[in-house]
Amino acid sequence: MTSFFKYCPIHSHESLDKEYSLINLFSNQATFSRRENFNDLFDSKVLIKLPTRDRVRRTYQKLSGESKRTFKQLYMGADAKANFDLLVGKIEGVLDSYLFYCVTDNPINNLMWSHYANSHNGFCIEWETDSMTLDKVIYQHQLPTLDLLELLESTIGLRTQEEIISQPWAALKVKLMEWEYEQEYRINLSHKAQSLVVKDLGKFALVKFQPEWIKSIIFGYRMPVETRDYLRSKMLEGTTFQEVVISPDNSGLQLKRLA
């Protein structure tokens, strides 16, 4: 894949200077979201599997010395449930902290134009892929699960960090099958890229990007000429522009490059 795409809405063609998606575009910044920012109740929701008493006992038997005594006190005593609940809260906090950008590999998806670009009134950004690592979303019928005891075992030497470290992000890349039409990919803002954060607003953050990462701007089928001219006037000289058109046989959409 040499390009990926972000669908963006325009709600009022009369107040373009107030359109959030255009303000971001012209400011060279993108909105990276945390999972609390999604409308879908199940997007990035992760089930955390609590251990049975038998599994806790087996883990205890693998330990020795002070770690064995500490484990018994914390997770087999009177406060075991409270301590496991505390761990669940910490894991939920880690999952809540991830910032990611949602994109697709398909710029001519009619449903995406309808749902995310305000019924073809908006636009689509074509990004080049060299500067970012994309992870494909997995669509399945069940919500993803994290095993609480496995995560705990990684902190007391019974599992390696390498075994566990990728599990939270893997879980955040799962969506239910009903969203499969989106053909979504996700970009995780790594710790190394935190310097690109312009403003952290809690549920989402504004992240700086380089203008040359944009390969083209694609106009929606219903975008008025005046709005197209406005975008052209604000983008860097040399920016490539395309538009979505209905295919000659009326079977779908296709892209047309503009002069």
What do you see in this structure?
- The chain is of the alpha+beta class and 259 residues long.
- The protein has one domain (3-257).
- The protein is built from nine helices and 15 strands.
- The strands form five sheets. A five-stranded mixed β-sheet has the order 1-5-13-14-15, with helices on one face. Strands 2-12-11 form a three-stranded antiparallel β-sheet.
- A hairpin with a 3-residue loop joins β11 and β12 (204-208).
- The mean pLDDT is 94.
Architecture blueprint of SSEs:
Layout: E1 3-8, H1 20-26, E2 29-33, E3 47-49, H2 53-62, H3 65-75, H4 80-97, E4 100-104, H5 110-116, E5 123-128, E6 135-136, E7 138-140, E8 145-147, H6 148-155, H7 161-164, H8 167-171, E9 174-176, E10 184-188, E11 197-200, E12 204-208, E13 214-219, H9 225-234, E14 240-246, E15 253-257
Parallel strand pairs: 3-8, 7-9, 13-14
Antiparallel strand pairs: 1-5, 2-12, 4-10, 5-13, 6-10, 11-12, 14-15
Helix pairs in contact: 2-3
Features:
single chain; 259 residues; alpha+beta; 5-stranded mixed beta sheet; elongated
Note the gap between the termini. 25 Å
Uncertain runs: none
Outline the biggest β-sheet.
Answer: 5 strands, mixed
* C-alpha geometry: elongated
Strand content: 25-35%
Rounded to the nearest angstrom, the radius of gyration is 23 Å
Q: Report the average pLDDT across residues.
A: 94
Strand order in the sheet with the most strands = 1-5-13-14-15
Overall number of structural domains: 1
DSSP helical segment count: 9
Query: H/E series, N to C?
Result: EHEEHHHEHEEEEHHHEEEEEHEE
Number of strands: 15
Structural class comes to alpha+beta
